[in-house]
Amino acid sequence: MKFILALLLSIASSSYAADKVFRLHLSNEPSGLDPNKQRTSSSSYLLGNLYRNFFTFDDQKGLVPDLGSECKRDKKQNLICTLKKDLVWSDKTPLTADDFIRTYKKILSPKNSVPRADLLFKIKNAEEIYRGKLGVDALGVSAPDKWTLKFEFEKPDPEFEYNLATSILAPTKEDLTAFTGPYKLKEWKKGQKIILEPNALYKDGHPKRPFIEFLFIEEDTVALQLYEKNELQFLRRLPTLFIPRYKSHKDFHWFPVTRLDYLGFGPELAAQEDLRKAFTYSLNYAELQKIFSSEGRPGCIGLPDSWFPKNAPCFDFDLKKVPSLKNTKSYTLMFSALGGEDHKRATEWLQNQWQKNAGIKTHLEVKDNKIFLQILQQEPPALFRKGVSPDRPTCLSSLETFAPTNPENYLRIKSPEYEGILSSLALAKTTQEQKKWCLAGAEYLMKNHLMIPLGAIHFSILVKPEFTGWKLNQMNQLDLSNLHPRP
């Protein structure tokens, strides 16, 4: 409570009118404001409103022009993209094609260790630059003029345009002091909050955008208390225990998101498929769905049914498929503190199920998210709970999570068969072909018992009705460019 009181006093002392401020929260304080080094989807709520790319993604309209106007393919399948003219940074300096190229070189430079450099790997020479085999000037991106970018590809990449809708690849200045989005940094009060003010030089958006405050609140229940006191206008995650209470309220919103949440098996279980089967078939997925008021059933791969020939493939609770085990060892199930109380409840339920239905002992370890990711990169535990927000709203993007070059491939999959499926999916020209190969990829992961999918994910959020114009899409990208007080 002392923290809440201190926070309220800090809020009350704001130097601008309280009714003009839109407040929301992040689970952790960011380590910096470089979108190119973004690691978590929640930080995109902040960075995606400071920095913009060629496009934004709209669930109904698809790719919508932002800094760019259009992209076209030439006869050689090079991608030619045109920027809007007379773009400027928030410091009034011109924004040109060279800024994009300089940023791509920064992302691929081996000395910078950018987490998602792989998003550029299909560009000519990009991966070799990242591996230190070529200099950055060999990159297959050029600027015929200051408003045009030409991308040459090493491998076919029919979905690259979607990469130009993420802030991860947004242009940045070296000193990170200027911005391209609807907002710019006003103040960062360490340990408390980040304050944003409207960027008047951003070409689009509502003219009456309010100031925004991102508060740093680790516990979801504390954030809910502040929302109930009207000190937050946007609650980005309502704990599932409270969904029944709020579901009928006007400020409750239920958003389906394209995510791949799963339980992964680490190297310790790589050669023990019987044990992985026991973990998989001893879970009562229907019971878990009821406990967490989930719309999507756990055990099913959490991708839209429309991406498959029929429905998304699922595991079922089936004790007949649980092999008889003679094993008294206890296995670690690790998860990130970023998941909040819901993840803690879920992992305790899993622990109980495995003990009761398969006689498997587990112990739970919760880690700070940064440490958790470091452990996954170095040596994953026996089991871990992970969620992935794909970079594009496509099956290929989701399944590429487990490609050899993807830093999110914590399952350590190195399979020519799986790589062949991904290649076929990338080259598929018809919807029928895409669905066929999407199913083949999902079934490869599940039939080999490499992971346990946790079903389609829906976010439950609360938003005060006095503000309108905010937009949250299926990629969990929050666009506040048209945010304004409701008339």
What does this structure look like?
With 487 residues, the chain is α+β, with helices and mostly antiparallel strands. It has helices at residues 2-12, 44-50, 97-108, 126-130, 160-163, 220-228, 243-246, 273-281, 285-291, 340-358, 369-378, 395-399, 416-427, 431-447, and strands at residues 21-26, 55-58, 62-65, 68-73, 79-83, 141-145, 148-151, 183-189, 193-198, 211-216, 234-235, 252-257, 260-265, 330-336, 361-367, 383-388, 451-453, 457-463, 467-468, 471-472, 478-479, 484-485. The strands form 7 sheets. A 5-stranded mixed sheet has the order 15-14-16-13-17. A 4-stranded mixed sheet has the order 1-10-9-8, covered by helices on one side. A hairpin with a 2-residue loop joins β6 (141-145) and β7 (148-151). α13 (416-427) runs antiparallel to α14. It is globular.
Keywords:
disordered N terminus, 22% strand, 487 residues, 14 helices, alpha+beta, 4-stranded mixed β-sheet, 5-stranded mixed β-sheet, 22 strands
The helix tally amounts to 14
Beta strand %: 15-25%
Proportion in helices:
25-40%
Identify low-pLDDT runs: 1-6
Mean pLDDT, nearest integer? 92
Main β-sheet description = 5 strands, mixed
Work out the number of β strands.
Answer: 22
Distance between the termini: 35 Å
Work out the radius of gyration.
23 Å
Overall geometry: globular
Sheet with the most strands: spatial strand order:
15-14-16-13-17
Find the structural class using helix and strand composition. alpha+beta
